[in-house]
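Exercise 7b. C-alpha coordinates:
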Protein backbone atom coordinates (compact mmCIF):
# COMPACT_ATOMS: atom_id res chain seq x y z
CA UNK A 1 0.00 0.00 0.00
CA UNK A 2 2.88 2.29 -0.84
CA UNK A 3 1.40 4.35 -3.71
CA UNK A 4 -1.80 4.24 -5.77
CA UNK A 5 -1.10 2.91 -9.27
CA UNK A 6 -1.81 6.30 -10.86
CA UNK A 7 1.20 7.89 -9.13
CA UNK A 8 3.74 5.05 -9.17
CA UNK A 9 5.63 6.50 -12.12
CA UNK A 10 5.70 10.03 -10.71
CA UNK A 11 8.37 11.45 -8.43
CA UNK A 12 7.55 11.21 -4.76
CA UNK A 13 5.44 14.16 -3.65
CA UNK A 14 7.62 16.40 -1.48
CA UNK A 15 6.32 19.25 0.67
CA UNK A 16 7.76 21.97 2.85
CA UNK A 17 5.70 23.81 5.44
CA UNK A 18 5.66 27.13 7.19
CA UNK A 19 7.78 27.35 10.33
CA UNK A 20 4.68 27.30 12.52
CA UNK A 21 3.27 24.23 10.80
CA UNK A 22 6.63 22.45 11.14
CA UNK A 23 6.49 22.98 14.88
CA UNK A 24 2.91 21.73 15.05
CA UNK A 25 3.70 18.55 13.11
CA UNK A 26 6.82 17.94 15.17
CA UNK A 27 4.70 18.18 18.33
CA UNK A 28 2.56 15.28 17.10
CA UNK A 29 -0.45 16.97 15.54
CA UNK A 30 -1.81 14.80 12.69
CA UNK A 31 -3.11 17.49 10.30
CA UNK A 32 -1.45 19.77 7.77
CA UNK A 33 -3.73 22.44 6.35
CA UNK A 34 -3.48 23.67 2.77
CA UNK A 35 -2.45 27.16 3.88
CA UNK A 36 0.50 25.72 5.79
CA UNK A 37 2.19 24.32 2.68
CA UNK A 38 4.78 26.78 1.35
CA UNK A 39 6.48 24.60 -1.27
CA UNK A 40 5.74 21.44 -3.27
CA UNK A 41 7.64 19.72 -6.07
CA UNK A 42 4.51 18.96 -8.12
CA UNK A 43 0.73 18.76 -8.03
CA UNK A 44 -0.39 16.06 -5.63
CA UNK A 45 -3.09 13.48 -6.24
CA UNK A 46 -5.62 12.38 -3.64
CA UNK A 47 -4.50 9.21 -1.91
CA UNK A 48 -0.78 9.35 -2.57
CA UNK A 49 1.87 9.62 0.11
CA UNK A 50 3.28 13.08 0.73
CA UNK A 51 6.73 13.34 2.32
CA UNK A 52 7.28 16.45 4.39
CA UNK A 53 10.75 17.91 4.84
CA UNK A 54 11.77 20.55 7.36
CA UNK A 55 13.61 23.80 6.67
CA UNK A 56 16.94 21.93 6.86
CA UNK A 57 15.78 19.47 4.20
CA UNK A 58 15.50 16.65 6.74
CA UNK A 59 12.61 14.20 6.86
CA UNK A 60 9.81 15.45 9.12
CA UNK A 61 6.76 13.29 8.41
CA UNK A 62 4.80 11.34 5.82
CA UNK A 63 1.06 11.33 5.34
CA UNK A 64 -1.90 10.85 3.02
CA UNK A 65 -2.51 13.69 0.56
CA UNK A 66 -6.04 14.95 -0.10
CA UNK A 67 -6.18 17.39 -3.00
CA UNK A 68 -9.75 18.51 -2.23
CA UNK A 69 -9.72 18.91 1.56
CA UNK A 70 -8.61 21.92 3.61
CA UNK A 71 -6.76 19.28 5.65
CA UNK A 72 -4.33 18.66 2.82
CA UNK A 73 -2.16 16.03 4.53
CA UNK A 74 -3.10 13.58 7.29
CA UNK A 75 0.03 12.40 9.03
CA UNK A 76 0.76 8.67 9.20
CA UNK A 77 4.23 8.87 10.71
CA UNK A 78 6.56 11.57 12.02
CA UNK A 79 10.12 11.35 13.31
CA UNK A 80 12.71 9.05 11.75
CA UNK A 81 12.09 7.94 8.17
CA UNK A 82 10.23 4.68 7.68
CA UNK A 83 9.24 2.71 4.60
CA UNK A 84 5.44 2.69 4.24
CA UNK A 85 4.94 -0.72 2.69
CA UNK A 86 2.64 -3.73 3.19
CA UNK A 87 4.59 -4.90 6.25
CA UNK A 88 4.32 -1.43 7.80
CA UNK A 89 0.53 -1.42 7.38
CA UNK A 90 0.22 -4.93 8.81
CA UNK A 91 2.22 -3.90 11.87
CA UNK A 92 0.13 -0.80 12.38
CA UNK A 93 -3.13 -2.76 12.24
CA UNK A 94 -1.79 -5.40 14.63
CA UNK A 95 -0.78 -2.68 17.10
CA UNK A 96 -4.15 -0.96 16.78
CA UNK A 97 -6.14 -4.12 17.43
CA UNK A 98 -3.88 -5.03 20.36
CA UNK A 99 -4.97 -1.84 22.14
CA UNK A 100 -8.48 -3.34 22.39
CA UNK A 101 -7.28 -6.61 23.90
CA UNK A 102 -9.00 -7.23 27.20
CA UNK A 103 -11.34 -4.23 27.00
CA UNK A 104 -14.49 -6.26 26.40
CA UNK A 105 -15.81 -9.69 27.29
CA UNK A 106 -18.19 -11.89 25.32
CA UNK A 107 -21.24 -9.86 26.46
CA UNK A 108 -20.07 -6.90 24.36
CA UNK A 109 -19.86 -7.38 20.59
CA UNK A 110 -20.15 -3.72 19.57
CA UNK A 111 -17.12 -1.47 19.88
CA UNK A 112 -14.58 0.61 17.98
CA UNK A 113 -11.59 -1.18 16.50
CA UNK A 114 -9.88 1.79 14.81
CA UNK A 115 -10.33 5.36 16.04
CA UNK A 116 -8.90 7.50 13.27
CA UNK A 117 -5.96 9.78 13.98
CA UNK A 118 -5.72 8.63 17.59
CA UNK A 119 -4.84 5.12 16.41
CA UNK A 120 -2.64 6.24 13.54
CA UNK A 121 -5.32 5.88 10.83
CA UNK A 122 -6.17 9.53 10.10
CA UNK A 123 -9.69 10.04 8.80
CA UNK A 124 -10.62 6.34 9.10
CA UNK A 125 -12.88 4.65 11.65
CA UNK A 126 -13.70 0.95 11.96
CA UNK A 127 -16.52 -0.30 14.18
CA UNK A 128 -17.52 -3.86 14.99
CA UNK A 129 -21.17 -4.88 15.34
CA UNK A 130 -21.19 -8.62 16.08
CA UNK A 131 -19.97 -10.22 12.83
CA UNK A 132 -20.30 -7.00 10.81
CA UNK A 133 -17.60 -4.39 10.29
CA UNK A 134 -18.38 -0.80 9.34
CA UNK A 135 -15.58 1.24 7.77
CA UNK A 136 -16.21 4.98 7.82
CA UNK A 137 -14.00 7.40 5.91
CA UNK A 138 -13.73 11.13 6.56
CA UNK A 139 -11.19 11.80 3.80
CA UNK A 140 -11.11 10.70 0.17
CA UNK A 141 -7.40 9.96 0.58
CA UNK A 142 -8.25 6.40 1.60
CA UNK A 143 -10.42 5.63 -1.42
CA UNK A 144 -7.61 4.66 -3.84
CA UNK A 145 -6.36 2.29 -1.10
CA UNK A 146 -9.58 0.48 -0.27
CA UNK A 147 -8.56 -2.77 -1.97
CA UNK A 148 -5.44 -3.01 0.16
CA UNK A 149 -7.28 -1.99 3.32
CA UNK A 150 -9.94 -4.64 2.78
CA UNK A 151 -7.31 -7.33 2.29
CA UNK A 152 -5.70 -6.32 5.59
CA UNK A 153 -8.98 -6.26 7.49
CA UNK A 154 -10.15 -9.62 6.16
CA UNK A 155 -6.82 -11.19 7.09
CA UNK A 156 -6.84 -9.88 10.68
CA UNK A 157 -10.55 -9.65 11.61
CA UNK A 158 -13.01 -12.46 10.87
CA UNK A 159 -16.34 -11.02 9.72
CA UNK A 160 -19.44 -11.70 7.63
CA UNK A 161 -19.41 -8.43 5.75
CA UNK A 162 -17.75 -5.04 5.62
CA UNK A 163 -19.91 -1.97 4.98
CA UNK A 164 -18.51 1.35 3.73
CA UNK A 165 -19.80 4.60 5.21
CA UNK A 166 -18.65 7.94 3.86
CA UNK A 167 -18.61 11.39 5.39
CA UNK A 168 -21.15 13.55 3.59
CA UNK A 169 -18.55 15.94 2.20
CA UNK A 170 -16.69 13.21 0.28
CA UNK A 171 -19.70 11.29 -1.06
CA UNK A 172 -20.04 13.10 -4.44
CA UNK A 173 -16.36 12.68 -5.30
CA UNK A 174 -16.27 9.09 -4.09
CA UNK A 175 -19.09 8.19 -6.47
CA UNK A 176 -17.76 10.13 -9.44
CA UNK A 177 -14.04 9.39 -9.18
CA UNK A 178 -13.84 6.04 -7.43
CA UNK A 179 -17.31 4.44 -7.87
CA UNK A 180 -17.88 4.01 -4.14
CA UNK A 181 -21.06 5.08 -2.39
CA UNK A 182 -22.24 5.43 1.19
CA UNK A 183 -23.75 2.20 2.53
CA UNK A 184 -21.98 0.03 -0.02
CA UNK A 185 -21.17 -3.53 1.06
CA UNK A 186 -17.51 -4.08 0.23
CA UNK A 187 -17.22 -7.67 1.38
CA UNK A 188 -19.80 -10.42 1.80
CA UNK A 189 -23.53 -10.21 1.22
CA UNK A 190 -25.29 -6.93 2.16
CA UNK A 191 -26.88 -7.07 5.63
CA UNK A 192 -30.60 -7.78 5.57
CA UNK A 193 -32.18 -5.23 7.89
CA UNK A 194 -30.50 -4.01 11.05
CA UNK A 195 -27.50 -5.78 12.54
CA UNK A 196 -28.08 -7.02 16.11
CA UNK A 197 -25.19 -6.76 18.56
CA UNK A 198 -24.79 -6.83 22.33
CA UNK A 199 -23.39 -4.36 24.83
CA UNK A 200 -22.92 -5.56 28.40
CA UNK A 201 -25.54 -8.17 27.58
CA UNK A 202 -28.07 -5.62 26.30
CA UNK A 203 -29.11 -6.22 22.70
CA UNK A 204 -29.36 -3.36 20.23
CA UNK A 205 -29.95 -2.93 16.53
CA UNK A 206 -27.52 -0.95 14.39
CA UNK A 207 -28.55 0.48 11.04
CA UNK A 208 -25.11 0.02 9.50
CA UNK A 209 -26.22 0.95 5.98
CA UNK A 210 -27.95 4.28 6.63
CA UNK A 211 -27.84 5.10 10.35
CA UNK A 212 -26.04 7.97 12.03
CA UNK A 213 -22.29 7.59 12.50
CA UNK A 214 -21.72 3.91 11.74
CA UNK A 215 -25.18 2.83 12.91
CA UNK A 216 -25.09 3.40 16.67
CA UNK A 217 -23.48 5.67 19.28
CA UNK A 218 -20.90 3.26 20.68
CA UNK A 219 -19.03 6.03 22.50
CA UNK A 220 -21.73 6.38 25.21
CA UNK A 221 -21.40 2.77 26.41
CA UNK A 222 -19.90 3.66 29.81
CA UNK A 223 -22.47 6.39 30.46
CA UNK A 224 -25.33 4.02 29.61
CA UNK A 225 -23.97 1.68 32.25
CA UNK A 226 -23.89 4.52 34.79
CA UNK A 227 -27.49 5.42 34.00
CA UNK A 228 -28.48 1.80 34.63
CA UNK A 229 -26.97 2.01 38.12
CA UNK A 230 -28.82 5.28 38.86
CA UNK A 231 -32.23 4.26 37.49
CA UNK A 232 -33.66 1.94 40.17
CA UNK A 233 -37.23 3.01 40.95
CA UNK A 234 -36.90 6.20 38.91
CA UNK A 235 -39.10 7.99 36.40
CA UNK A 236 -36.67 8.66 33.54
CA UNK A 237 -36.61 11.12 30.63
CA UNK A 238 -34.19 10.39 27.80
CA UNK A 239 -34.13 13.51 25.63
CA UNK A 240 -32.59 13.36 22.15
CA UNK A 241 -33.05 9.66 22.70
CA UNK A 242 -32.14 8.39 19.22
CA UNK A 243 -32.70 4.61 19.37
CA UNK A 244 -33.19 4.47 23.14
CA UNK A 245 -29.80 3.23 24.32
CA UNK A 246 -29.89 5.03 27.67
CA UNK A 247 -33.53 4.03 28.08
CA UNK A 248 -33.04 0.28 27.72
CA UNK A 249 -30.22 0.38 30.26
CA UNK A 250 -32.38 2.43 32.64
CA UNK A 251 -35.18 -0.09 32.30
CA UNK A 252 -32.84 -3.00 32.96
CA UNK A 253 -31.68 -1.11 36.03
CA UNK A 254 -35.21 -1.06 37.43
CA UNK A 255 -36.65 2.28 36.25
CA UNK A 256 -40.41 2.62 36.88
CA UNK A 257 -40.92 4.36 33.55
CA UNK A 258 -38.87 5.71 30.66
CA UNK A 259 -39.84 8.43 28.19
CA UNK A 260 -37.92 8.60 24.94
CA UNK A 261 -38.04 12.09 23.43
CA UNK A 262 -36.77 12.66 19.89
CA UNK A 263 -37.79 14.63 16.81
CA UNK A 264 -37.28 11.57 14.58
CA UNK A 265 -40.08 9.04 14.29
CA UNK A 266 -37.57 6.67 12.68
CA UNK A 267 -35.37 6.84 15.79
CA UNK A 268 -38.32 6.29 18.13
CA UNK A 269 -39.43 3.22 16.19
CA UNK A 270 -35.91 1.88 16.60
CA UNK A 271 -36.16 2.55 20.35
CA UNK A 272 -39.33 0.47 20.50
CA UNK A 273 -37.60 -2.39 18.71
CA UNK A 274 -34.65 -2.19 21.09
CA UNK A 275 -37.04 -2.51 24.05
CA UNK A 276 -38.60 -5.53 22.37
CA UNK A 277 -35.15 -7.11 21.93
CA UNK A 278 -34.58 -7.03 25.69
CA UNK A 279 -37.84 -8.32 27.13
CA UNK A 280 -35.87 -11.21 28.63
CA UNK A 281 -34.74 -8.78 31.36
CA UNK A 282 -37.37 -8.47 34.09
CA UNK A 283 -36.69 -4.75 34.49
CA UNK A 284 -37.26 -4.05 30.81
CA UNK A 285 -40.40 -6.19 30.74
CA UNK A 286 -41.83 -4.35 33.77
CA UNK A 287 -40.85 -0.80 32.74
CA UNK A 288 -43.45 1.49 31.19
CA UNK A 289 -41.95 2.79 27.95
CA UNK A 290 -43.34 5.93 26.31
CA UNK A 291 -42.12 7.65 23.14
CA UNK A 292 -42.68 11.32 22.32
CA UNK A 293 -41.99 12.72 18.87
CA UNK A 294 -41.17 16.40 19.31
CA UNK A 295 -38.44 19.01 19.28
CA UNK A 296 -36.71 18.33 22.59
CA UNK A 297 -36.06 21.97 23.48
CA UNK A 298 -39.70 22.91 22.93
CA UNK A 299 -41.19 19.88 24.65
CA UNK A 300 -39.04 20.22 27.77
CA UNK A 301 -39.78 23.94 27.99
CA UNK A 302 -43.54 23.51 27.64
CA UNK A 303 -44.02 20.31 29.61
CA UNK A 304 -45.15 20.26 33.23
CA UNK A 305 -43.99 16.67 33.82
CA UNK A 306 -41.40 15.89 36.48
CA UNK A 307 -38.74 13.19 36.28
CA UNK A 308 -36.33 11.65 38.77
CA UNK A 309 -33.56 11.12 36.23
CA UNK A 310 -33.04 13.15 33.05
CA UNK A 311 -30.52 12.41 30.31
CA UNK A 312 -29.76 15.35 28.01
CA UNK A 313 -27.47 14.16 25.22
CA UNK A 314 -28.13 16.32 22.14
CA UNK A 315 -26.38 16.05 18.78
CA UNK A 316 -23.51 18.46 18.27
CA UNK A 317 -24.61 22.05 18.76
CA UNK A 318 -21.40 23.45 17.23
CA UNK A 319 -20.48 22.00 13.84
CA UNK A 320 -17.80 24.64 13.36
CA UNK A 321 -15.75 27.03 15.47
CA UNK A 322 -17.94 30.01 14.52
CA UNK A 323 -20.86 28.32 16.32
CA UNK A 324 -18.99 27.70 19.59
CA UNK A 325 -20.25 30.71 21.60
CA UNK A 326 -23.87 30.18 20.56
CA UNK A 327 -23.57 26.48 21.40
CA UNK A 328 -22.32 27.22 24.92
CA UNK A 329 -25.39 29.41 25.44
CA UNK A 330 -27.65 26.69 24.03
CA UNK A 331 -26.18 24.10 26.41
CA UNK A 332 -26.83 26.40 29.34
CA UNK A 333 -30.43 26.99 28.23
CA UNK A 334 -31.10 23.30 27.57
CA UNK A 335 -29.83 22.25 30.96
CA UNK A 336 -31.77 25.04 32.68
CA UNK A 337 -34.91 23.68 31.04
CA UNK A 338 -34.00 20.15 32.08
CA UNK A 339 -33.34 21.08 35.70
CA UNK A 340 -36.81 22.66 35.86
CA UNK A 341 -38.25 19.24 34.97
CA UNK A 342 -36.34 17.44 37.73
CA UNK A 343 -38.26 16.22 40.76
CA UNK A 344 -36.87 16.56 44.26
CA UNK A 345 -33.69 14.48 44.71
CA UNK A 346 -33.46 14.22 40.93
CA UNK A 347 -30.34 13.52 38.87
CA UNK A 348 -29.27 15.26 35.68
CA UNK A 349 -26.97 13.53 33.19
CA UNK A 350 -25.77 16.20 30.75
CA UNK A 351 -23.69 15.34 27.70
CA UNK A 352 -22.03 17.10 24.78
CA UNK A 353 -20.41 15.73 21.62
CA UNK A 354 -19.37 19.15 20.26
CA UNK A 355 -15.62 19.10 19.61
CA UNK A 356 -15.58 22.89 19.28
CA UNK A 357 -16.83 23.26 22.87
CA UNK A 358 -14.20 22.19 25.38
CA UNK A 359 -14.97 20.04 28.41
CA UNK A 360 -14.35 23.01 30.70
CA UNK A 361 -16.68 25.28 28.72
CA UNK A 362 -19.42 22.66 28.68
CA UNK A 363 -19.17 21.73 32.34
CA UNK A 364 -19.20 25.43 33.31
CA UNK A 365 -22.33 25.99 31.19
CA UNK A 366 -24.12 23.17 33.02
CA UNK A 367 -22.92 24.50 36.39
CA UNK A 368 -24.26 27.98 35.55
CA UNK A 369 -27.61 26.44 34.72
CA UNK A 370 -27.56 24.59 38.04
CA UNK A 371 -26.67 27.72 40.00
CA UNK A 372 -29.38 29.78 38.28
CA UNK A 373 -31.98 27.20 39.31
CA UNK A 374 -31.52 28.21 42.94
CA UNK A 375 -31.55 24.54 43.96
CA UNK A 376 -28.87 22.86 46.00
CA UNK A 377 -26.89 20.36 43.98
CA UNK A 378 -23.77 18.25 44.08
CA UNK A 379 -21.54 16.97 41.31
CA UNK A 380 -21.45 13.19 41.24
CA UNK A 381 -18.88 12.66 38.47
CA UNK A 382 -17.60 13.70 35.06
CA UNK A 383 -16.72 11.31 32.25
CA UNK A 384 -14.90 11.72 28.96
CA UNK A 385 -13.94 9.25 26.24
CA UNK A 386 -14.19 5.47 26.60
CA UNK A 387 -10.98 3.46 26.03
CA UNK A 388 -11.92 2.31 22.52
CA UNK A 389 -12.38 5.98 21.49
CA UNK A 390 -9.07 7.49 22.69
CA UNK A 391 -8.61 11.20 21.87
CA UNK A 392 -5.07 11.59 20.55
CA UNK A 393 -5.12 15.35 19.93
CA UNK A 394 -7.15 18.42 20.89
CA UNK A 395 -9.62 18.37 18.01
CA UNK A 396 -10.49 14.76 18.83
CA UNK A 397 -11.68 15.64 22.34
CA UNK A 398 -15.41 15.83 21.76
CA UNK A 399 -17.23 13.71 24.37
CA UNK A 400 -17.97 14.94 27.87
CA UNK A 401 -20.71 14.08 30.39
CA UNK A 402 -21.42 15.51 33.84
CA UNK A 403 -23.71 14.07 36.53
CA UNK A 404 -25.46 16.43 38.97
CA UNK A 405 -27.69 15.51 41.91
CA UNK A 406 -30.33 18.09 42.95
CA UNK A 407 -32.17 18.45 46.24
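Sequence design result:
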Amino acid sequence: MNKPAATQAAARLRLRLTATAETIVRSGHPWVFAGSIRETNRTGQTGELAVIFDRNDKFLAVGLFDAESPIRVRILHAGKPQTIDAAWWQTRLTQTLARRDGLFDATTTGYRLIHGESDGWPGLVLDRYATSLVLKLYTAAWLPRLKEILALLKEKIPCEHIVLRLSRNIQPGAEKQFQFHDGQTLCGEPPVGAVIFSENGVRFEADVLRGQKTGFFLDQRENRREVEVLAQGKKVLNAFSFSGGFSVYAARGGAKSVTDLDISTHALESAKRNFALNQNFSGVAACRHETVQSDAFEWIENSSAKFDLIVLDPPSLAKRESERVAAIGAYEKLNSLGIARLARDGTLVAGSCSAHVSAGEFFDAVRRAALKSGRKFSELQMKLHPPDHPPGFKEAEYLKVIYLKFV
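Instructor comment: The mean pLDDT is 96. Residues 324-340 form the longest helix (17 residues).
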